[in-house]
Amino acid sequence: MRRSHRRLVSGLASVAVMALGLSACGDAGSDAGSDGTVTLTVDTFSTFGYEELFKRYEADHPGIKIKHRNVVQLDEYLPRLEQWIAAGSGAGDVVAIEEGILTKFMASPDKFVNLLDHGAGSLKAGFLDWKWRQALSPDGKYLVGLGTDIGGLAMCYRTDLFEKAGLPTDRAEVGELWPTWDAYIDTGRKYAAEVKDSKFVDGSVNLFNTILAQTASQSAGYTFFDTSGKLVADSNPPVRSAWDTTLRIQQAGLSAGLKSFEPSWGSGFKQAKFATIACPSWMLGVIKENAGAEASGKWDVAAIPGGSGSRGGSFLAVPKQSRHAAEAAELAKYLTGVQSQIAAFKARNNLPSSPQALDDPAVTSFKNEYFNDAPVGQIYARGAKAIKPLYLGADTNPVQQRFEDALLALEQGRLAPDAAWEKALDDAEREAR
Amino acid sequence: MTVSIGSRAGARAVRPPGPPPPRRGARTVLARWDVKLSPYLFISPYFLLFFLFGLFPMGYTVWVALHDWELLGTREFVGLENFRLVLTDPQFWNAVRNTLGMFVIATVPQLLLALVLANALNQRMRARTLVRMGVLVPMVTSIAAVAIVFGQLFSRDFGMVNWVLGWFGVENLDWTARRWTSWLAISVMVDWRWTGYNALIYLAAMQSIPRDLYEAAAIDGASRARQFWSITLPMLRPTIIFTAIVSTIGGFQLFTEPLLFGNGDMAGGSLRQFQTVTMYMFENAFRRFDYGYASAVSWMIFMLILLGSLLNFVWLRRMGGTK
């Protein structure tokens, strides 16, 4: 008895040792190698379409190695980035900053390298003016980041499902189906009457965020926070109207109830569980990645109900903590240059923030094979220069998450509409405290 | 290890009776120090590390909890204000409720099942060691892998659990939507991982119960069930107290399973249906970057664990005492 007991224990011990060995973890640092090569770490989220550009840059700069770290979900990326920047270590040499958190970082620009010190000033003409100014200190002397993309809006739809529902499949005709969100809901009702095994739209979260960005950029110019940083979620009309429109779509039974960027949302693409999705330009790459090769040619892109607007868009910055600031600044300048923006657009359809790139025939004539050869360059670039910038307060992201939670609870049938709205406002106040 | 070294040192110090002890030379002083200090030296690495990574952070957390301490911005002394806020914070009490609920749903069946399993493993059977090691397999799988697989099993549209439930007319149950469904799913995850571990601990304890007790009981005509209730269970009491306390500590620190069940959503569901206290602490520290408040929350967790373990201890002692 004793012997077998001891054997059992030694067995346990060896298993435990194995488990320890397996859980060893890697560390990401950026250091000059012994042979003088400099490794630059680049932090991004979602898809930036930089893979080819990295290879090209490495080929042109023999002393530079690029290490790419990508986090799919923005909600996960942001707090991590915030912590790195505040702690003064951990961040890459070049980091992607989404417009929602830029305001927060603009409050302490000294955490980042002033790109004007690295000759970025001469690049000003290569960016839309408002995009340039978003990452520039009010006195114009400190440039935190260089613009990568902007989020022009469109509506993506599945031609095979539309055909099944007896709806037109041509993108121009589809766009004419829904000049307004009300018309969009009517179309959805027709769809729902014909097709039972899939819903009209992916879910409330993506819809609400898109409609809010759209209506806010057409009117107030800000969303949950006004330009003085005060929480105005309860009084800013676009917030309520985006909420109401989303609610009506939910109540019409058109939503598949999926939350953006969750695994179930990804499988929803694969299983064709919804027929339309509001797609800012950067969403095209996300759709392609999730829906996969089987869905090639089945998605198409039409105009969005309710007119133009912008949602999302990012910047590249060099944290002060970088040990290779000069090299990193060069890389950031290269990645946001006109030619690179065109390349990123071709790779992932991230709409350029550079007017030259927007006018470039390579962009305007670009057709996306995956999206049934849709002329996405023309669709997105057309209204891009008329887009009005959106001011986003420092706590926009957490507040937006509380609105998403309330909409999900509504969708799950766990809250009544009024209670959900009250809850969203209460929780928003808590986040902004 | 320390015991054997200590006793050897002791043996050297105790001189055999007979000739008087020699003068107190440097050697004797050293020998005395050796006896007195060496044991402390030998155990010091643990305590030094514990001080550095355990005690000091704990003390520092108290200091932080007394401040309005944000990641960026001012650090202002606010006394017990953070604790006052925690005690009146509905989100905190919601998290406490979730944690307690999942603790009960997960731990009670887990320990009962472990007991039954241990009893079965204690019988004579073929390939006994293999089977005994087998119950430990869930333990060595990465917790993240477990959570991801179970997350898919319980997925709303494409999950296997819903597929099976579909046969009985239950359509597309959203396991994250309700408190009890999410608690259940998470508890299944926890039990899958920990039942085997507890079973092995029980098994080890069962093997130290003297055989003659069972033989005597058998001669007196006690059935197997009777033997289990009247011999095995009382003899296991200290072990059961141990597992109950360890499970209490683990249960109050439940984090990875609910986090991954909600796909990394630190708020634990649209209505915080399954946000545990540790998730709430983490949310305050690393989402809201409100370190002062998060420290206060973590001290509340510490108090809760202390209270829970104490209650468990007292209750189980009582229960055993009446037998």
Give a quick rundown of the structure.
The complex is a heterodimer of chains A (433) and B (323). With 433 residues, chain A is of the alpha/beta class. Chain A has 19 helices and 9 strands.
Task: Report on this structure.
- The complex is a heterodimer of chains A (433) and B (323).
- Chain A has helices at 2-22, 51-60, 74-87, 99-106, 129-134, 159-164, 171-177, 181-194, 204-218, 237-251, 263-270, 283-291, 325-335, 338-348, 355-359, 361-364, 376-384, 396-411, 417-432, and strands at residues 38-45, 64-71, 94-98, 145-158, 199-201, 274-280, 299-302, 310-317, 351-352.
- By secondary structure, chain A is an alpha/beta fold.
- Chain A folds into two domains: 38-150 and 313-364, Periplasmic binding protein-like II (D-Maltodextrin-Binding Protein, domain 2), CATH 3.40.190.10; 151-310 and 379-432, 3-Layer(aba) Sandwich (D-Maltodextrin-Binding Protein, domain 2), CATH 3.40.190.10.
- In chain A, 50% of the residues are buried.
- Residues 1-30 of chain A have low confidence and may be disordered.
- Chain B is an all-alpha fold and 323 residues long.
- Chain B has two domains: 2-48; 83-321, MetI-like (MetI-like fold), CATH 1.10.3720.
- Chain B is 72% helix and 2% strand.
- Chain B contains 15 helices and two strands.
- Chain B has helices spanning 2-13, 26-65, 81-87, 90-121, 128-134, 137-140, 143-153, 160-167, 179-207, 211-219, 224-235, 237-252, 256-261, 277-286, 291-321; strands spanning 67-69, 75-77.
- Chain B has a two-stranded antiparallel sheet.
- In chain B, a hairpin with a 5-residue loop joins strand 1 and strand 2.
- In chain B, helix 3 packs across helix 15, helix 12 (237-252) packs antiparallel against helix 15 and helix 14 (277-286) packs antiparallel against helix 15.
- Chain A binds chain B through residues 1, 4-5, 7-8, 11-12, 15, 18-19, 22-23, 73, 75-76, 79, 82-83, 86, 107-108, 257, 262-264, 267-268, 271, 273, 398, 401, 405-406, 408-409, 412-415, 430-431, and chain B through 71-72, 91, 128-129, 132-133, 136, 140, 142, 151-152, 155-158, 174, 176-178, 200, 204, 207, 263-264, 267, 270-271, 286-289.
- Chain B: Residues 96-312 form the ABC transmembrane type-1 domain.
- Chain B: InterPro entries: ABC_transporter_permease, MetI-like, MetI-like_sf.
